[in-house]
Amino acid sequence: MSYADRDKYGMYKQGGSAGPGPMLMGADTLLGEDVVNASDEDLGDIKEIMLDMQTGQVAYAVLAFGGFLGMGEKLFAVPWQALHLDTANKRFVLNVAKDRLQQAPGFDKDAWPDMSDTQWASQVHTFYGTDPNRNAGPSMGPGSNVGMGGMVGGAGVGAGTGSMGAGHAGGTATGAGADLGSGAGSSTDPRAGNLGDDTDISRLRGSNIG
Predict the structure, then answer these.
(1) Which residues fall within 8 angstroms of residue 136, CB to CB, at 6 or more apart?
(2) Among 181, 205, 162, residue whose Cα is nearest residue 22
(3) Can you tell me the distance from the alpha carbon of 101 to that of 105, in angstroms, rounded to the nearest whole number?
(4) 3-state DSSP assignment of residue 53
(5) 143 by DSSP, 3-state: which?
């Protein structure tokens, strides 16, 4: 079931530039959304979306991975900016190998961490190679080929190409703070005629989901 199937109010029915999505989306429709990696391996699904109540930003998507019928599942807080929204297949893509995810900072559903703790946040962002001081939403566009190197761990250099509107997902990512945009620290804006710099894209993604 995709976010379109969970649309209770018909907000995504019109498609195109009419109505919400994918630039502005209902949080409830994203709960349960499948998450895969660039190799099309199933990484689990979104269980919760965490809001930073001080800034109004989406901070993390909580991903459930492993277990059977909900038993033994491990939860992972994935930085919102680490995800790619595959608008063609209506799912999220996370640039991490399945076996690597097992090494990610995780927690049990009955023992949630203090997500406001800066040391915990630094550990999470370092693992995914994202910048805790940069407010950004997921990259988006058709396709899930966002590359498999360079982002996770925050120390490598990786390149991957994939369709994101008129741009490419992946690009070259170096160190912490690099995301799935075209180049370190940038995000691709899928709207035609936009270069996707942070100043422009913040108007769209600043405090909104997607």
Answers:
(1) 80, 81, 179, 187, 198, 201, 202, 205
(2) 205
(3) 9
(4) coil
(5) coil
* pTM of the complete model beyond 0.70: no
Q: What is the reported pLDDT for 40?
A: 92
Q: Using DSSP, state whether 204 is helix, strand or coil.
A: helix
CA distance 181 to 52: 23
The span from the CA of 46 to the CA of 145, in Å, is 20
Backbone angles phi, psi at 116, to 5 degrees: -90, -5
Report how far residue 167's alpha carbon sits from residue 154's, in angstroms, rounded to the nearest whole number.
23
Helix (H) / strand (E) element for 77: namely strand 74-79
For residues 171 and 163, is the Cβ–Cβ distance under 8 A?
Answer: no
The H-assigned helical ranges of 117-170 are: 118-128
Q: Residues with Cβ < 8 Å from 196, sequence gap 6 or more?
A: 167, 181, 182, 186, 187, 188, 189
pLDDT in 10s for each residue of the chain, 210 residues = 888 888 888 888 876 665 567 788 899 999 999 999 999 999 999 999 999 999 899 999 999 987 655 566 899 999 999 999 998 999 999 999 999 998 999 999 899 999 999 999 999 999 999 998 888 889 988 886 553 333 444 433 333 333 333 333 333 333 333 333 333 333 344 434 434 444 433 333 444 444
Give residue for tokens 């995800």: 83
Q: At a CB cut-off of 8 Å and minimum separation 6, what does 17 contact? A: none
Q: Which region, left, alpha or beta, applies to residue 84 given φ > 0 means left and ψ of -120 to 50 means alpha?
A: beta
